[in-house]
Amino acid sequence: MKIVYIITRSDVLGGASVHLLDIAKGMINQGHQVHILVGGVGTFTEELKKNNINFSSLKYLKREISLTHDVLGFWEIKKHLKQLKPDIVHCHSSKAGLLGRLAAKSLNLPVVFTAHGWAFTEGISPRKQKIYAKIEKFLINFSDHIITVSEFDRIYGFNFGVGSPDKVTTVHNGIPVQDLQTKETKVVGQPCKVIMVARFDDQKDQITLIQALGLLKDKNWVMEFIGSGPTLECCKQEANKLGLENKIKFLGQQRNVKDFLNNSDIFVLSTNYEGFPLTILEAMRAKLPVIATNVGGNNESIVGEKTGFLTKKNDAKDLSQALSTLIDDRNLVIEMGKRGYERFMTEFTHDLMLKKILKIYTEVVARK
To answer: What is the DSSP string of 51-114?
Structure first.
């Protein structure tokens, strides 16, 4: 099968681009031909080069709304699709989903769209929600199938009149299985190491986590934040204000995140809204118990009280109670981590995700 993937941004290596990179590698390994159309050049295109994945960098495919660029972007995508003649087109991210679906349908090509969290998701203004939901309702007519990365998003879309059960399928994110590294044996008295991996922005609520840790100042823990972004300085100030500067480390962007996870005890994702985060799966793969806000599809990966804890949004006290339980009980940390790993292996591996996506491709192409 000849597959063309389309994604908007190349300047970041976030959840959608990592997800696409994994799918592309998996499809190539199964003997399919893959070509990726992506806006601009950056860290994502560098990864494509490293993995010898064919791609074309598009000049006019940009995240920002611009009538001129968007019209030119449509024609640019259409030109490439005409030349590539794929069996199926698979779009990722909102702008690529809009222009890619219109371009594919103008050439009568089968097209699938993955919503990595809807553009009209929680956390944006009601006005924007209405506009984006209307656009998605219109684009349903140009979609052979839609994939959501969580059941939450599937139902959420239906609530806005987007899609129908026969046209929208949940395929949970999956990540590759890796050889487990041996964790360091904890020395008695060694602090419990907590970690959060996420961009510092309004969606990710690191400040509530810092406030929760401020309530546990006297306990034996250290906290590592991996990531950068616009709210980083504000979070550093809050940590200093609470007298936590010696217990919290802001490590910026890191390429070897797996090593940091392997050397941690507890993973936390304090966030305001989500689709289905890859970082939670990476933590489960590393045998870490996960504490996450009960938003989006988080409760589809975490089993509360079994593999971790689901906490209330923007609630430092609730988050501190979950942290306190695990910081005080090393055996519970190990047990929850093991159960999380077992769940990852049965539900969220890359091979399982790939199998489900390929089944959708086959059905869509067969209908055509």
So the answer is: TT-EEEEESS--SS--HHHHHHHHHHHHHHHHHH--SEEEEESHHHHHHHHHHHHHTT--EEEE
Helices 316-327 & 330-347 angle (0-180, nearest 10): 100
- Please give the model's pTM, rounded to 2 decimal places: 0.89
199 contact partners, CB below 8 Å, separation of at least 6: 14, 227, 228, 229
Strand partners, 331: none
CA–centroid distance for 31 within its chain: 26
What is d(CA 59, CA 80) in angstroms, rounded to the nearest whole number? 12
Please state the length of the chain.
368
The number of C-alpha atoms within 13 Å of 109 and in the hemisphere containing its C-beta is: 28
Tens-place pLDDT, residues 38-57 = 999 999 999 999 999 999 99
Which of 57, 58, 52 is closest to 28 using CA atoms? 52
Half-sphere exposure of 200 (CA within 13 A, CB side): 20
- Tell me: the pLDDT tens digits for 254-298? 988 999 999 999 999 999 988 899 999 999 999 999 999 999 999
- Please give the single-letter amino acid code of residue 307: T
